[in-house]
Amino acid sequence: MAHDVFSDKQIAAKHQAGFNISVADYLGRIFGYEFIPGPVGGLGITFSSAINQTKFIDHETPFPIIQYNEIDTFDPVFFDLQFPTGNATIYDITPFEFGAWSGSIGAFTPTEWLGTSLSGGVPVNESACVRGFDRAGFLIGTSADTFDAWYIQALSNGTEAQFAKRSSGAGNRIDGTDRSAKRQSAAMDELLQIIPESFSKVFGLNITSSSYAVFPNPFANLSSTSSVVNHSKDLRLVDGSESGQAIPLWGLIQPARGLEFIIAWDDNEDAAPYQWNNGTNLYNSYLAANASKISFLIVLPAVTFVNKNFTHKPVFFGCDPLLTTTRDANGPIILYFADASYSAYTNYSYSQSNRSNRTLDPDWPVCLGCAAIDRSLSKGLGRMNEVVP
């Protein structure tokens, strides 16, 4: 597999075409064989091509949005690698467009033409526009690229670059012992050595240049971008959880989207030693929304969140408009689920599971339906007793 991934038909071909390559490309090829249909792990499938699929056109499939964090020039450096801060710019990519709502930019560009050199939103060379840069595997690999975090954590003995998806020291998370921790840690250490060595040996790239996904910057010389992005040739992107918002809510809560109801599943590893959730990621999204004056549910800090038992049952946030950052009903209601031992221990890796009967409250569908239409009802489109008997 490793040999195939680095072959001329895959990562090397992109490098030979003059594009930067990185760990994100490597991960993209691995995930491609797992998740993307078509020959060679879906190598020829682009993200933007989804808009041509019949089921997508007929609205029979989910609308995919992938979230990334940007590595900024001024981000802190540890062991020659940078790690994003809590206020890092969050990028969205959909089959239609790529960009950010705020932060260092406030603009979007068509996904289909990613890789094309632009200045002020216009191609630098109209005869050299690029298509195919948005390979689905590469975009998935970018969303999983936390190599900078793993590397910094390993060399700092876990004291730096903490983020929600860490698990190298989790071990057997059910009982808190380290039965598998040593094996898992050894495997991670081996990968942290093999991957940089491979990029150095095959492509002559050092760890600094191969750790981040590199996108040719389509936002150069735009009035809505920061001075740094304005003059940057490339954007460096990593897993969207690294800035502390592992639940990808930021792009969904933007007023322009107008969403009324969101189901949020939190399966990150907030609290040692068992790696259950404590609401930290939801709280971070609340802080970001409040700072940007975006309507969002008011979330309590982790200690209070856990003490109120919000992690062991489904919780509806935002039902009362007065308990939102803007004290109105302009934001969505969010149904929050934390990874918890509802009916089984789920805080460890497994490949197969079975669901037993009697694990769902018979009134749950009605409860869920009421919450889903609550915002519409508050806008005068009906009354609850007209909908639910």
TrEMBL record:
Keywords in alphabetical order, please.
Glycoprotein, Hydrolase, Lipid degradation, Lipid metabolism, Signal
Can you give the residue ranges of the PLA2c domain? 1-389
Q: Which organism is it from?
A: Cudoniella acicularis
Keyword Iron-sulfur in the entry? The reply is no
Its recorded reaction(s) are: a 1-acyl-sn-glycero-3-phosphocholine + H2O = sn-glycerol 3-phosphocholine + a fatty acid + H(+)
Give its E.C. classification number: 3.1.1.5
Q: Which Gene3D superfamilies match?
A: Cytosolic phospholipase A2 catalytic domain
Q: Does the keyword Signal apply?
A: yes
The lineage's top-level taxon is Eukaryota
Q: Which InterPro entries match?
A: Acyl_Trfase/lysoPLipase (IPR016035), LysoPLipase_cat_dom (IPR002642)
This chain's protein is named Lysophospholipase
Similarity field? Belongs to the lysophospholipase family.
- GO terms of biological process kind: glycerophospholipid catabolic process
Q: Which GO terms describe its molecular function?
A: phosphatidylcholine lysophospholipase activity; phospholipase A2 activity
What's in the GO CC field?
A: cytosol
